[in-house]
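Thread: quick sanity check before group meeting

JM: Hey all, I'm pulling together slides for Thursday and realized we never actually wrote out the predicted structure for the chain we discussed last week. Dropping the sequence here so it's in one place. If anyone has concerns about the input, flag it before I start.
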Amino acid sequence: MDLALYHPELGYYARAGQRSGRAGDFFTSVDVGAVFGELLAAQVAEMVTLLESRVPNPESHLDLVEAGAGNGRLAADIMRALKRDHPDAYQQVHLHLVEASATARAEQRHTLGEVGDRLISSSETLPDSFEGVLVANELLDAMPVHQVTMTADGLREVYVGSRLTVDSPQGRQSVNCELSTVNGPPSTPRLQQYLDAAGAHLQPGWRAEINLNAVDWIRDAARRLRRGFMILIDYGHDARELYSASHSAGTLTTFTGHRAGEGETWLQNPGQQDITSHVDWTSIRRAAHAEALQTIAFLDQTYFLLGIVSSLPQPPAASPQLKTLLLPGGLGSVMKVLILGKGVGTPALLGTSFKVRAT
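JM (edit): ok, ran it. Output follows.
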């Protein structure tokens, strides 16, 4: 999965600056329109104000870090809204974009355009140390996972194997490689430890994904954050639901041309399609708490955005784009929002002012 998505030359994300949208393979909230970034900007501005008020220093700055920034579309929407509606916060913010794809990074400054003056860094990795707000929209679900299956002999890991065949049509020899799965011993004891910590009890025949990368990433991000907030937006479930009979086939899937694959489609056409799995929010929160982060809220995107909309002095019009972001059964309820804080307590925020509920 790591090679198929992130190989520097052949990986799905590495070869193009943008993969989502009408011409891509899947939709995100960013593809709905600028309103998503504009609403996030209101929440970011409030967080910046809260951080400033605790340690007022006119010479200081605060960082806005977007992890998994792609070509910078979301950051551009946020920064343009900050410049227009929250100029003080805009001047206070130093922007850092984190993106694995060199192709996408090369497009970021052009995408930012007139708000590119606030861009301080564009890199594969998070800043060594930062204070402010970190935003990650649909990052965790795209991290490579381990797939495991429970058998009568205990936990086994699912590996990718290959079979080579040689054809010689009309005397011209060609070699074909066919990928398949094979079960073997777990590659690390962390897989069983992860399931134990999540309280997950897989039954024989069940498959499941374990995202050790996501756990390692949140712990690393928490250590780099000196003080501030994190807003993580993604689809997934608490461990009790994710590792249950309702998801006994696992959640690993592919997207091509806005169609989800069925079966082991992720073995096909490596580097040509998106591969994704659902986020285990229980383990993400546990890892965050272990690094001194506090959960401020965990809620559906519907309620998060409604909280912001209802708090604005001039709420945006009820456009089709806004309805798409809020619609239950679609992005509104599928996408969850985890708000974490470090050194900020548990303040009441715009995004938590309507209802704090995760369906």
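AS: nice. The chain has a mean pLDDT of 93. The chain has 13 helices and 15 strands.
JM: adding both to the slides.
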